[in-house]
């Protein structure tokens, strides 16, 4: 009888240990360094923050954050986090953290890092990048299908659409190239204007560029520009034409004027990176995510049913690699 009770007690203890072990595995401490646009951009950084909150709710993680105001601050924040040796993972948000992360990761070789939107070639860094041209292509198709409609008071007689990038960098150019190619896929006669703010956090300049395009006959403009894209949305609202949001669903900012959003599910990417670490499945190297992986897409917002149907057909073709999308503006224009 005593032996049976002892065995039962040991079994209960084993169950308790296993249960506690699973809790420890689920919990973790994460640090995140946002891009210079900061929280409140209603776009890239806010989506990354949402991913952190998702991990907090799902796994009970604790996290600390930093919001640099300048590129020069990245290395300092990353070093401060790494030097504590308290974090299971340190996440860099944005392409322009690559140089700083490369230096810090080489100094703290036992620390796991992840970067979103850029590649850092270090054995302790997981790099998550996107097939940006695929998202751009979907936005170009949607814009072209809309600008050729004759039953919408926001659409003028000219077949002109536009896209405003935050900065002239390869990932933004890939979006613009896809946008141009998507528009030409629908109608080769559509004219596509593009320009750059030169900053991720200058809504005033974004608005100025958007108003200039609208004056030239553009009736749909995509702001792929972080916080600067908020100015693009404001211009479209004031002129009562269409804007396309970026990264997150920005429809609530101008419900009558946000046609759709070029969705980049940074929240899901952040969650994936954290899950891999918590599950002891950290994978350094390059992780390429696109439409097929559910990392890029669009939101329905004001899109008519017929346009959504066409977009779904195009998505299927992209996933099946039936469409070859150019990665540079030069290729798209040729």
Annotated CATH architecture of the largest domain: 3-Layer(aba) Sandwich
Rg over CA atoms = 23 Å
Helix percentage = 40-55%
| Count of DSSP-assigned helices | 11
What about the largest sheet? Answer: 6 strands, parallel
Beta content? 15-25%
CATH superfamily label of the largest domain? Response regulator
Order of helices and strands: HEHEHEHEEHEHEHEHEEHEEHH
How many domain modules? Answer: 2
Number of strands: 12
Question: Secondary-structure map with pairings?
Answer:
Elements: H1 2-26, E1 29-33, H2 44-59, E2 62-66, H3 74-84, E3 89-93, H4 98-107, E4 113-116, E5 125-130, H5 132-147, E6 160-165, H6 170-186, E7 191-196, H7 203-215, E8 220-224, H8 229-239, E9 242-247, E10 258-264, H9 266-278, E11 285-289, E12 296-298, H10 305-319, H11 329-333
Parallel strand pairs: 1-2, 1-3, 3-4, 4-5, 5-11, 6-7, 6-8, 8-9, 9-10
Antiparallel strand pairs: 10-12
Helix pairs in contact: 2-9, 3-4, 5-6, 5-10, 7-8
Question: Which characteristics define this entry?
Answer:
single chain; 334 residues; alpha/beta; Rossmann fold; 6-stranded parallel beta sheet; disordered N terminus
Give your account of this protein's structure:
This protein has 334 residues and is an alpha/beta fold. It folds into 2 domains: 26-130 and 267-289, Rossmann fold (3-Layer(aba) Sandwich); 132-263 and 304-333, Response regulator (Rossmann fold, 3-Layer(aba) Sandwich). 46% of the residues lie in helices and 19% in strands. The protein contains 11 helices and 12 strands. The protein has helices at 2-26, 44-59, 74-84, 98-107, 132-147, 170-186, 203-215, 229-239, 266-278, 305-319, 329-333, and strands at 29-33, 62-66, 89-93, 113-116, 125-130, 160-165, 191-196, 220-224, 242-247, 258-264, 285-289, 296-298. The protein has a 6-stranded parallel sheet, with helices on both faces. It has a 6-stranded mixed sheet with strand order 7-6-8-9-10-12, sandwiched between helices. Helix 5 (132-147) packs parallel to helix 6. The protein starts with a helix and ends with a helix.
């Amino acid at each position: 009888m005593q032996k049976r009770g002892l065995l039962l007690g040991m079994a209960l203890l084993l169950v308790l240990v296993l249960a506690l072990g699973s809790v420890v595995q689920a919990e973790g401490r994460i640090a995140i360094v946002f891009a210079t646009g900061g929280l409140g951009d209603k776009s890239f950084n806010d989506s990354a923050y949402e991913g952190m909150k998702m991990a907090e709710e799902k796994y009970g993680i604790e996290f600390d954050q930093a919001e640099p105001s300048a590129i020069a601050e990245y290395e300092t924040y990353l070093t401060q986090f790494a030097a504590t040796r308290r974090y299971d993972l340190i996440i860099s948000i944005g392409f322009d953290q690559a140089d700083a992360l490369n230096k810090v990761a080489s100094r703290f070789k036992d620390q796991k890092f992840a970067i979103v939107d850029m590649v850092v070639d270090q054995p302790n860094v997981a790099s998550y990048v996107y097939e940006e041209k695929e998202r751009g292509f979907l936005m170009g198709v949607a814009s072209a299908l809309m600008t050729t409609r004759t039953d919408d008071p926001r659409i003028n007689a000219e077949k002109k659409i536009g896209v405003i990038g935050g900065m002239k960098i390869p990932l933004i150019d890939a979006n613009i190239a896809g946008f141009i190619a998507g528009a030409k896929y629908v109608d080769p006669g559509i004219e596509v204007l593009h320009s750059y703010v030169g900053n991720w956090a200058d809504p005033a300049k974004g608005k100025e560029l958007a108003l200039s395009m609208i004056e030239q006959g553009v009736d749909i403009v995509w702001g792929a520009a972080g916080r600067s894209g908020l100015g693009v949305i404001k211009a479209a609202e004031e002129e009562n034409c269409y804007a396309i949001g970026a990264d997150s669903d920005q429809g609530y900012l101008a419900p009558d004027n946000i046609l759709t959003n070029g969705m980049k599910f940074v929240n899901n990417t952040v969650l994936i990176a954290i899950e891999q670490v918590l599950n002891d499945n950290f994978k350094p190297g390059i992780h390429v995510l696109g439409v097929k992986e559910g990392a890029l897409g669009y939101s329905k917002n004001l899109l008519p049913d017929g346009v959504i149907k066409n977009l779904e057909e195009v998505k299927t073709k992209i996933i099946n690699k039936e469409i070859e999308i150019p990665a540079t503006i030069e290729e798209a224009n040729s």
